[in-house]
Design goal:
Blueprint lengths: L4 E4 L5 E7 L4 H7 L5 E3 L16 E5 L2 H13 L3 E9 L2 E7 L6 E5 L5 H6 L8 E6 L2 E6 L3 H7 L1 E2 L8 H12 L4 E2 L3
Parallel strand pairs: 4-7, 10-11
Antiparallel strand pairs: 1-2, 2-9, 3-4, 3-8, 5-6, 6-7, 8-9
Length: 182
């Protein structure tokens, strides 16, 4: 991943992206739906193969994409466990199967890589995969790769729900991460 590009989005943050082809089978199945974004912790293994795969969060903005992702999950042998949250135009549905990955479909209006990654709390989670013109791209924060390799948690966005911050820190602490000292 030595060659990278800086990509400016409609937020005041520049993210890097690189074309790559080492995409997981599950990510490939979900990215067949045009315009969706796979992002978060399930993308960390692209930098650290020992991290292990977690839940797959896939983001979309239209009903057509949402329906396509539901179908992709069914083809992967996953079954819906209902909506964990539905408010306004945002909807989250979880798909699971015994011994298989868990996929969360998040439908939210106007999803793009820049605003999505900017909303993530830790730099190590600010990573996404997209499929554009038949090519896979890995998008990430300027600190993502170094923080994953050093197993450090750098807060980028604090959640106002303090309990959620604690749960997230604990989740990554169990995977060997340490809080970055200020």
């Amino acid at each position: 991943m030595s060659k990278y590009y800086d990509l400016q989005f409609d937020v005041e943050k520049t993210f890097r992206y690189v074309e790559f082809d080492n995409v997981s089978h599950a990510h490939k199945q979900l990215l067949k739906v045009p315009g969706v974004i796979v992002a978060g912790g399930s993308c960390i293994p692209y930098f650290d193969r020992f991290h292990g795969y977690g839940d797959i969060d896939v983001y979309c903005s239209t009903e057509e994409q949402y329906d396509g992702l539901q179908y992709a999950c069914q083809l992967m042998g996953l079954k819906s466990h209902g909506y964990s949250r539905e408010s306004g135009e945002t909807r989250i549905e979880t798909f699971m199967a015994e011994g298989a990955c868990t996929v969360q479909i998040i439908k939210s209006p106007k999803v793009n890589v820049g605003t999505l990654l900017t909303s993530f709390d830790f730099a190590c989670c600010r990573v996404a995969v997209t499929l554009q013109d038949g090519k896979y791209f890995l998008h990430y924060d300027e600190f993502t790769e170094d923080d994953i390799k050093a197993k450090q948690l750098r807060f980028c966005h604090y959640n106002t729900a303090k309990k959620k911050n604690f749960v997230r820190v604990l989740k990554y602490y169990k995977k060997g991460y340490e809080l970055l000292e200020a």
